[in-house]
Protein backbone atom coordinates (compact mmCIF):
# COMPACT_ATOMS: atom_id res chain seq x y z
CA UNK A 1 0.00 0.00 0.00
CA UNK A 2 2.80 2.42 0.92
CA UNK A 3 4.57 1.54 -2.32
CA UNK A 4 1.52 2.37 -4.44
CA UNK A 5 1.08 5.68 -2.62
CA UNK A 6 4.70 6.58 -3.29
CA UNK A 7 4.34 5.53 -6.93
CA UNK A 8 1.27 7.75 -7.41
CA UNK A 9 3.08 10.70 -5.85
CA UNK A 10 6.09 10.09 -8.11
CA UNK A 11 3.87 10.03 -11.19
CA UNK A 12 2.28 13.28 -10.04
CA UNK A 13 5.72 14.86 -9.58
CA UNK A 14 6.88 13.84 -13.06
CA UNK A 15 3.67 15.18 -14.62
CA UNK A 16 3.87 18.48 -12.73
CA UNK A 17 7.54 19.09 -13.57
CA UNK A 18 6.92 18.22 -17.23
CA UNK A 19 4.03 20.69 -17.43
CA UNK A 20 6.18 23.40 -15.88
CA UNK A 21 9.22 22.70 -18.05
CA UNK A 22 7.48 22.40 -21.41
CA UNK A 23 5.18 25.31 -20.55
CA UNK A 24 8.21 27.62 -20.54
CA UNK A 25 8.94 26.98 -24.22
CA UNK A 26 6.55 29.64 -25.56
CA UNK A 27 3.58 31.79 -24.46
CA UNK A 28 1.19 29.48 -26.31
CA UNK A 29 2.67 26.41 -24.58
CA UNK A 30 2.42 28.19 -21.24
CA UNK A 31 -1.25 28.93 -21.89
CA UNK A 32 -2.11 25.39 -22.98
CA UNK A 33 -0.05 23.41 -20.47
CA UNK A 34 -0.58 25.82 -17.58
CA UNK A 35 -4.26 24.92 -17.71
CA UNK A 36 -3.43 21.45 -16.37
CA UNK A 37 -1.04 22.40 -13.56
CA UNK A 38 -3.68 21.77 -10.85
CA UNK A 39 -4.41 18.27 -12.23
CA UNK A 40 -1.43 16.41 -10.63
CA UNK A 41 -2.12 18.16 -7.33
CA UNK A 42 -5.78 17.15 -7.39
CA UNK A 43 -5.05 13.54 -8.34
CA UNK A 44 -2.47 13.20 -5.57
CA UNK A 45 -4.47 15.22 -3.03
CA UNK A 46 -7.79 13.45 -3.56
CA UNK A 47 -6.08 10.06 -3.21
CA UNK A 48 -3.27 10.66 -0.71
CA UNK A 49 -4.46 13.69 1.25
CA UNK A 50 -3.63 17.35 1.60
CA UNK A 51 -0.09 16.65 2.83
CA UNK A 52 0.84 14.83 -0.37
CA UNK A 53 -0.56 17.64 -2.52
CA UNK A 54 1.24 20.30 -0.47
CA UNK A 55 4.54 18.44 -0.78
CA UNK A 56 4.00 18.13 -4.53
CA UNK A 57 3.28 21.87 -4.85
CA UNK A 58 6.41 22.65 -2.84
CA UNK A 59 8.50 20.46 -5.13
CA UNK A 60 7.07 22.28 -8.14
CA UNK A 61 7.83 25.67 -6.60
CA UNK A 62 11.43 24.65 -5.81
CA UNK A 63 11.81 23.43 -9.40
CA UNK A 64 10.63 26.78 -10.79
CA UNK A 65 13.02 28.72 -8.52
CA UNK A 66 15.85 26.38 -9.54
CA UNK A 67 15.21 27.13 -13.20
CA UNK A 68 15.50 30.87 -12.57
CA UNK A 69 17.23 31.54 -9.21
CA UNK A 70 16.60 35.29 -9.11
CA UNK A 71 14.47 37.49 -6.89
CA UNK A 72 12.22 38.37 -9.83
CA UNK A 73 11.15 34.72 -10.14
CA UNK A 74 8.47 35.24 -7.49
CA UNK A 75 6.83 38.14 -9.34
CA UNK A 76 7.39 36.77 -12.83
CA UNK A 77 5.62 33.50 -11.99
CA UNK A 78 2.71 34.94 -10.01
CA UNK A 79 0.19 33.17 -12.23
CA UNK A 80 1.87 29.83 -11.62
CA UNK A 81 1.86 30.33 -7.83
CA UNK A 82 -1.86 31.10 -7.95
CA UNK A 83 -2.56 28.00 -10.03
CA UNK A 84 -0.59 25.78 -7.62
CA UNK A 85 -2.47 27.37 -4.73
CA UNK A 86 -5.71 26.67 -6.60
CA UNK A 87 -4.90 22.98 -6.60
CA UNK A 88 -4.23 23.04 -2.85
CA UNK A 89 -7.43 24.94 -2.02
CA UNK A 90 -9.55 22.59 -4.13
CA UNK A 91 -7.88 19.61 -2.45
CA UNK A 92 -8.56 20.95 1.05
CA UNK A 93 -12.21 21.62 0.17
CA UNK A 94 -12.63 18.14 -1.27
CA UNK A 95 -11.02 16.45 1.73
CA UNK A 96 -13.41 18.39 3.98
CA UNK A 97 -16.37 17.02 2.05
CA UNK A 98 -17.42 20.25 0.31
CA UNK A 99 -19.43 19.97 -2.92
CA UNK A 100 -17.11 20.66 -5.82
CA UNK A 101 -19.27 23.52 -7.09
CA UNK A 102 -19.00 25.29 -3.72
CA UNK A 103 -15.26 24.56 -3.68
CA UNK A 104 -14.85 26.28 -7.04
CA UNK A 105 -16.72 29.38 -5.85
CA UNK A 106 -14.63 29.49 -2.65
CA UNK A 107 -11.42 29.10 -4.66
CA UNK A 108 -12.36 31.95 -7.00
CA UNK A 109 -13.14 34.24 -4.06
CA UNK A 110 -9.92 33.39 -2.21
CA UNK A 111 -7.63 33.73 -5.22
CA UNK A 112 -9.42 36.91 -6.29
CA UNK A 113 -8.83 38.47 -2.87
CA UNK A 114 -5.20 37.35 -2.82
CA UNK A 115 -4.67 38.80 -6.28
CA UNK A 116 -6.24 42.09 -5.17
CA UNK A 117 -4.06 42.27 -2.05
CA UNK A 118 -0.94 41.58 -4.10
CA UNK A 119 -1.94 44.25 -6.62
CA UNK A 120 -2.50 46.87 -3.90
CA UNK A 121 0.77 45.92 -2.20
CA UNK A 122 2.65 46.18 -5.48
CA UNK A 123 1.17 49.63 -6.11
CA UNK A 124 2.22 50.75 -2.62
CA UNK A 125 5.83 49.56 -2.88
CA UNK A 126 6.22 51.01 -6.39
CA UNK A 127 4.84 54.36 -5.28
CA UNK A 128 1.99 54.26 -7.80
CA UNK A 129 -1.70 54.76 -7.40
CA UNK A 130 -3.83 51.66 -7.96
CA UNK A 131 -5.23 53.27 -11.10
CA UNK A 132 -1.74 54.05 -12.42
CA UNK A 133 -0.54 50.51 -11.83
CA UNK A 134 -3.76 49.19 -13.40
CA UNK A 135 -3.12 51.16 -16.59
CA UNK A 136 0.48 49.89 -16.67
CA UNK A 137 -0.48 46.23 -16.16
CA UNK A 138 -3.35 46.50 -18.65
CA UNK A 139 -1.02 47.91 -21.27
CA UNK A 140 1.55 45.15 -20.67
CA UNK A 141 -1.13 42.45 -20.85
CA UNK A 142 -2.71 43.77 -24.03
CA UNK A 143 0.73 43.99 -25.65
CA UNK A 144 1.44 40.36 -24.67
CA UNK A 145 -1.97 39.29 -26.00
CA UNK A 146 -1.33 41.20 -29.23
CA UNK A 147 1.93 39.31 -29.70
CA UNK A 148 0.15 35.98 -29.12
CA UNK A 149 -2.55 36.90 -31.62
CA UNK A 150 0.04 38.01 -34.17
CA UNK A 151 1.84 34.66 -33.80
CA UNK A 152 -1.49 33.02 -34.66
CA UNK A 153 -1.93 35.36 -37.64
CA UNK A 154 -4.68 37.41 -35.97
CA UNK A 155 -5.20 40.81 -34.38
CA UNK A 156 -7.68 42.45 -32.02
CA UNK A 157 -9.66 43.64 -35.03
CA UNK A 158 -10.13 40.06 -36.20
CA UNK A 159 -11.93 39.21 -32.96
CA UNK A 160 -15.02 40.88 -34.40
CA UNK A 161 -15.31 37.88 -36.68
CA UNK A 162 -16.09 35.75 -33.62
CA UNK A 163 -19.39 37.48 -33.04
CA UNK A 164 -18.28 40.30 -30.78
CA UNK A 165 -19.98 43.68 -31.24
CA UNK A 166 -18.27 46.27 -33.42
CA UNK A 167 -16.51 48.13 -30.63
CA UNK A 168 -12.90 48.79 -29.72
CA UNK A 169 -12.15 45.23 -28.61
CA UNK A 170 -8.81 46.18 -27.05
CA UNK A 171 -10.41 48.87 -24.89
CA UNK A 172 -13.27 46.53 -23.97
CA UNK A 173 -10.75 43.87 -22.97
CA UNK A 174 -9.10 46.28 -20.53
CA UNK A 175 -12.45 47.26 -19.00
CA UNK A 176 -13.57 43.66 -18.34
CA UNK A 177 -10.15 42.34 -17.31
CA UNK A 178 -11.17 41.73 -13.64
CA UNK A 179 -14.16 39.64 -14.73
CA UNK A 180 -12.05 37.72 -17.24
CA UNK A 181 -9.49 36.93 -14.53
CA UNK A 182 -12.16 35.52 -12.18
CA UNK A 183 -13.82 33.57 -15.01
CA UNK A 184 -10.45 32.14 -16.00
CA UNK A 185 -9.85 30.90 -12.43
CA UNK A 186 -13.30 29.32 -12.27
CA UNK A 187 -12.92 27.70 -15.69
CA UNK A 188 -9.51 26.24 -14.80
CA UNK A 189 -10.87 24.78 -11.57
CA UNK A 190 -13.99 23.45 -13.28
CA UNK A 191 -12.14 21.71 -16.14
CA UNK A 192 -9.55 20.12 -13.84
CA UNK A 193 -12.19 18.79 -11.45
CA UNK A 194 -14.12 17.29 -14.37
CA UNK A 195 -10.99 15.50 -15.59
CA UNK A 196 -10.15 14.23 -12.09
CA UNK A 197 -13.67 12.87 -11.65
CA UNK A 198 -13.53 11.15 -15.04
CA UNK A 199 -10.11 9.61 -14.33
CA UNK A 200 -11.23 8.57 -10.86
CA UNK A 201 -14.20 6.72 -12.33
CA UNK A 202 -11.96 4.95 -14.87
CA UNK A 203 -9.51 3.93 -12.14
CA UNK A 204 -12.21 2.74 -9.76
CA UNK A 205 -11.73 5.43 -7.12
CA UNK A 206 -14.42 6.09 -4.52
CA UNK A 207 -15.55 9.27 -2.70
CA UNK A 208 -15.29 11.42 -5.82
CA UNK A 209 -18.07 13.69 -4.58
CA UNK A 210 -21.25 14.75 -6.24
CA UNK A 211 -20.93 15.17 -10.02
CA UNK A 212 -20.88 18.73 -11.30
CA UNK A 213 -23.98 17.91 -13.35
CA UNK A 214 -25.90 18.18 -10.04
CA UNK A 215 -24.52 21.60 -9.19
CA UNK A 216 -26.89 24.54 -8.78
CA UNK A 217 -25.94 28.08 -7.84
CA UNK A 218 -27.43 29.58 -4.67
CA UNK A 219 -30.68 31.31 -5.48
CA UNK A 220 -29.63 34.54 -3.74
CA UNK A 221 -26.96 35.11 -6.43
CA UNK A 222 -29.72 36.31 -8.74
CA UNK A 223 -29.78 39.58 -6.78
CA UNK A 224 -26.20 40.26 -7.91
CA UNK A 225 -27.36 39.76 -11.49
CA UNK A 226 -30.14 42.30 -10.96
CA UNK A 227 -27.69 44.72 -9.31
CA UNK A 228 -25.32 44.39 -12.28
CA UNK A 229 -28.15 45.26 -14.66
CA UNK A 230 -29.06 48.40 -12.71
CA UNK A 231 -25.39 49.42 -12.47
CA UNK A 232 -25.18 49.49 -16.28
CA UNK A 233 -27.79 52.29 -16.19
CA UNK A 234 -25.86 54.39 -13.65
CA UNK A 235 -24.59 57.84 -14.73
CA UNK A 236 -21.08 57.14 -13.39
CA UNK A 237 -18.51 55.41 -15.64
CA UNK A 238 -16.94 53.47 -12.75
CA UNK A 239 -20.38 52.11 -11.78
CA UNK A 240 -21.13 51.02 -15.35
CA UNK A 241 -17.72 49.34 -15.62
CA UNK A 242 -18.25 47.55 -12.30
CA UNK A 243 -21.71 46.47 -13.44
CA UNK A 244 -20.31 45.14 -16.71
CA UNK A 245 -17.70 43.05 -14.88
CA UNK A 246 -20.27 41.73 -12.42
CA UNK A 247 -22.64 40.93 -15.28
CA UNK A 248 -19.97 38.87 -17.03
CA UNK A 249 -19.16 36.95 -13.85
CA UNK A 250 -22.82 36.20 -13.16
CA UNK A 251 -23.34 35.26 -16.79
CA UNK A 252 -20.55 32.71 -16.46
CA UNK A 253 -22.12 31.32 -13.26
CA UNK A 254 -25.43 30.69 -15.02
CA UNK A 255 -23.63 29.40 -18.11
CA UNK A 256 -22.03 26.75 -15.88
CA UNK A 257 -25.43 25.91 -14.42
CA UNK A 258 -26.82 25.65 -17.94
CA UNK A 259 -24.00 23.25 -18.87
CA UNK A 260 -24.81 21.22 -15.73
CA UNK A 261 -28.46 21.03 -16.81
CA UNK A 262 -27.45 19.90 -20.31
CA UNK A 263 -25.06 17.31 -18.87
CA UNK A 264 -27.73 15.92 -16.53
CA UNK A 265 -30.25 15.66 -19.38
CA UNK A 266 -27.74 13.93 -21.65
CA UNK A 267 -26.96 11.43 -18.90
CA UNK A 268 -30.66 10.87 -18.17
CA UNK A 269 -31.40 9.94 -21.79
CA UNK A 270 -28.08 8.05 -22.17
CA UNK A 271 -27.10 9.63 -25.46
CA UNK A 272 -23.94 8.33 -27.20
CA UNK A 273 -20.64 10.00 -26.26
CA UNK A 274 -20.09 11.30 -29.79
CA UNK A 275 -23.45 13.08 -29.77
CA UNK A 276 -22.75 14.47 -26.30
CA UNK A 277 -19.46 15.90 -27.55
CA UNK A 278 -21.23 17.66 -30.41
CA UNK A 279 -23.76 19.16 -27.99
CA UNK A 280 -21.02 20.47 -25.68
CA UNK A 281 -19.10 22.01 -28.59
CA UNK A 282 -22.25 23.77 -29.81
CA UNK A 283 -22.98 25.03 -26.27
CA UNK A 284 -19.68 26.96 -26.27
CA UNK A 285 -20.36 28.63 -29.62
CA UNK A 286 -21.83 32.08 -30.08
CA UNK A 287 -24.79 32.83 -29.91
CA UNK A 288 -25.79 29.53 -28.26
CA UNK A 289 -23.79 30.51 -25.16
CA UNK A 290 -26.51 33.05 -24.37
CA UNK A 291 -29.15 30.32 -24.69
CA UNK A 292 -27.18 28.14 -22.23
CA UNK A 293 -26.99 31.06 -19.77
CA UNK A 294 -30.75 31.59 -20.00
CA UNK A 295 -31.25 27.84 -19.47
CA UNK A 296 -29.13 27.97 -16.30
CA UNK A 297 -31.02 31.00 -15.01
CA UNK A 298 -34.39 29.39 -15.75
CA UNK A 299 -33.31 26.27 -13.85
CA UNK A 300 -33.56 28.27 -10.62
CA UNK A 301 -37.34 28.24 -10.93
CA UNK A 302 -38.16 25.41 -13.37
CA UNK A 303 -35.78 22.87 -11.77
CA UNK A 304 -35.13 20.84 -14.93
CA UNK A 305 -33.10 18.23 -13.01
CA UNK A 306 -35.67 17.86 -10.20
CA UNK A 307 -33.10 18.75 -7.52
CA UNK A 308 -35.30 21.17 -5.60
CA UNK A 309 -35.95 18.98 -2.50
CA UNK A 310 -32.22 18.51 -1.88
CA UNK A 311 -30.93 21.84 -3.18
CA UNK A 312 -29.10 24.06 -0.72
CA UNK A 313 -30.43 27.61 -0.89
How does this structure look, described?
The chain has helices at residues 2-23, 27-34, 38-48, 50-67, 73-76, 78-95, 100-125, 130-151, 169-175, 177-202, 222-231, 237-268, 273-283, 288-302. The chain has 313 residues and is mainly alpha-helical. It has a domain at 1-126 and 176-201: Arp2/3 complex 21 kDa subunit ARPC3 (Orthogonal Bundle), CATH 1.10.1760.20. α4 (50-67) runs antiparallel to α6, α11 runs antiparallel to α12 (237-268) and α12 (237-268) packs across α14. The longest helix is centred in the C-terminal third of the chain and has 32 residues, at 237-268. The two termini are 41 Å apart. The relative contact order is 0.08. The model is unreliable at 161-166 (pLDDT under 50).
Blueprint of the fold:
Blueprint: H1 2-23, H2 27-34, H3 38-48, H4 50-67, H5 73-76, H6 78-95, H7 100-125, H8 130-151, H9 169-175, H10 177-202, H11 222-231, H12 237-268, H13 273-283, H14 288-302
Helix pairs in contact: 1-2, 1-3, 1-4, 3-4, 3-6, 3-10, 4-6, 6-7, 7-10, 10-12, 11-12, 12-14
In short:
With 313 residues, the protein is mostly helical.
How would you describe this structure in keywords?
14 helices, 313 residues, 73% helix, Arp2/3 complex 21 kDa subunit ARPC3
Provide the residue-averaged pLDDT.
83
Radius of gyration: 21 Å
Number of helices: 14
CATH topology of one domain: Arp2/3 complex 21 kDa subunit ARPC3
Task: Based on Cα principal axes, name the global outline.
Answer: globular
Structure class: mainly alpha
Note the run of SSEs as H and E.
Answer: HHHHHHHHHHHHHH
Count of distinct strands: 0
What is the level 1 CATH name of one domain? Mainly Alpha
User: In which range does the helix fraction lie?
Assistant: over 70%
What would CATH call the architecture of one domain? Orthogonal Bundle
Distance between the termini: 41 Å
Beta-strand proportion: under 5%
Main sheet, how many strands, which sense, barrel?
none
Low-confidence stretches: 161-166
Amino acid sequence: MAGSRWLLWSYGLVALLALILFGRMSPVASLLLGTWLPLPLLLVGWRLGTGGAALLALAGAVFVVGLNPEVSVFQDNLGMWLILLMGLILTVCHRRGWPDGSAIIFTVVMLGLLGLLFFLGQAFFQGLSPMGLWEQKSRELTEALSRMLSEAGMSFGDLRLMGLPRVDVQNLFIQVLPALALINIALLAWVNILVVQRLGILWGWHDLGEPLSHWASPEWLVFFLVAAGFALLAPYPWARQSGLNLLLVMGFVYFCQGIAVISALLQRYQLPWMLRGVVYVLAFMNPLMLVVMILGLADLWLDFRMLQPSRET
